[in-house]
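Here is the promised in-class demo. Please do not try to memorize the tokens; focus on the logic of going from shape to residues.
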């Protein structure tokens, strides 16, 4: 399952910019 949404979310989660999930 290679979804662009999942990939973007993963990158955003990895990036210490917007930590919405936690």
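The designed amino acids, position by position:
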């Amino acid at each position: 399952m290679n979804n662009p949404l999942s990939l973007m979310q993963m990158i955003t989660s990895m990036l210490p910019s917007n930590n919405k999930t936690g």
